[in-house]
Specification:
The structure holds 2 protein chains of 2 kinds. Chain A contains 5 helices and 5 strands, in the order αβαββββααα. By secondary structure, chain A is an alpha+beta fold. In chain A, a hairpin with a 3-residue loop joins strand 3 and strand 4. In chain A, helix 1 packs across helix 3 and helix 1 crosses helix 4. The two termini of chain A are 45 Å apart. Chain B is of the alpha+beta class. Chain B contains 6 helices and 5 strands. The chains are: A alpha+beta, B alpha+beta. The interface between A and B is large, with 77 and 70 residues.
Chain lengths: 196, 202
């Protein structure tokens, strides 16, 4: 093999060791999603709490309401939606891999109802798989970065693996058959979905 | 036909063969999922936006059980529409029509049927990025052989991927080189990931 071969081999090996478990996690959690009919998720454990808003808070103080909502929801979640009804009530929804929080605040009465849902293990697995995007703070951004690394690793493993097979194998007939079958199937499926 | 190997004698030849050909088998899937994962994480509108909807008219036989999952499936089959029919989108309308949606990766078709079998099909296609992302998220759809084949291929890839990880670690363990660096990565990265997941789940 030329000089590129050992480099590709070592990268394939070290990247594989670094990211194999992460990729394996995504394989298992992806299966929990794809086979959801056979792996039902438990209903969340729900708790409801009430609290009061600061007396001096105005209904129109949007920034303050957002701050209170974020502080109430806590870490590990990020805002999913916010609505304000005609009567001035606010409804905030936050969600994270492990739980959800809904906060309904009535600035007129100062009453706040917080409904928290703690997810079971199957749903946590699915949520970790589908939690994407860099918004929501350092934790979510770091998780998104790991997802990007896992994504790049999957592409890199496949391409470097093909290269290594091609460079290290004398009789490539079986490999060509398997490789062609795999790519023709996927390309054909995509073409079918585009054209049909 | 087996790959050459320069690794230590402790590595069974069949293990490297399994790793190599298993990898070739799922290579297309890995590239597709790697690309679509990047799309999911970054959501570039230019690749994911829907194209303008297209409407066509058709005539169908009104089923005996309209506005039901079975009736919707019968109409979808008659119109050769492939995909999932979300039950929550099957509904009757106040003007005696009823409607449902057939969804598959890359295309949603809303079907609105009148009392005499006149059907209006509103087809909304996605750009290639959206189609591929839809394929990433595809569930089992027994009405379609094509979509079911993808679902089975997904299951096969999960198994092969786990085998690749296990055999890959074994290959590394048979190397005299890269032992220390590999060990640090093998243990260190999962610890970081687990710590982060624990933080997100608190």
């Amino acid at each position: 093999m030329n000089r590129l071969g050992p480099l590709v081999r070592d990268l394939h090996l070290l990247a594989g060791l670094a990211l194999a478990l992460l990729v394996g996690f995504y394989a298992i959690s992806g299966a929990a999603i794809a086979y959801a009919r056979w792996i039902p998720a438990e209903p969340p454990a729900v708790s409801v709490a009430t609290m009061s808003l600061p007396r001096e808070l105005e209904a129109s103080d949007t920034a303050a309401m957002h701050r209170i909502a974020a502080a109430t929801a806590g870490a590990g979640v990020r805002r999913q939606s916010v609505e304000q009804a005609g009567d001035g009530r606010w409804r905030f929804r936050f969600v994270g891999p492990g739980r959800s929080v809904e906060m309904v605040a009535n600035p007129g009465t100062g009453a706040v109802q917080v409904t928290s849902g703690r997810f079971g293990p199957v749903r946590v697995l699915r949520m970790l798989h589908t939690t994407t995007g860099y918004d929501g703070g350092v934790g979510f951004a770091t998780w998104a970065l790991l997802q990007d690394l896992a994504s790049l690793a999957m592409i890199g493993f496949a391409l470097s693996g093909i290269y290594l097979w091609y460079r290290r194998t004398r009789d490539r007939r079986l490999g060509w058959i398997i490789l062609a079958g795999s790519w023709v199937y996927v390309a054909g499926l995509v073409a079918y979905l585009v054209l049909a | 036909m087996t790959p050459e190997t320069s690794v230590g004698r402790r590595l069974p030849r069949w293990m490297l063969t399994l790793h190599t050909y298993g990898g070739l088998l799922v290579s297309s899937y890995l590239v597709l999922y790697g690309v679509t994962s990047l799309l999911a994480n970054h959501r570039p509108n230019r690749l994911l936006d829907r194209l303008p909807p297209v409407e066509v008219m058709a005539v169908v036989t009104v089923p005996t059980d309209p506005a039901t999952p079975a009736g919707a499936r019968a109409v979808a089959d008659a119109l050769s529409l492939v995909g999932r029919i979300p039950e929550g989108q099957i509904r009757g309308n106040s003007d005696s029509t009823w409607q449902f949606t057939v969804a598959r990766p890359g295309r949603d078709v809303r079907v609105r049927i009148g009392p005499h079998g006149d059907a209006r099909l509103t087809s909304s296609r996605q750009r290639l990025g959206g189609l591929l992302l839809g394929l990433h998220n595809a569930q089992a759809e027994p009405s379609s052989v094509v979509l079911m084949s993808w679902w089975y291929f997904t299951g096969l890839t999960v198994i092969v991927l786990l085998i690749l990880a296990a055999t890959g670690v074994w290959v590394w363990a048979s190397h005299q080189r890269l032992r220390r660096a590999g060990g640090v990565l093998l243990v260190g990265v999962p610890l970081v990931v687990a710590a982060l997941a624990g933080w997100l789940l608190r």
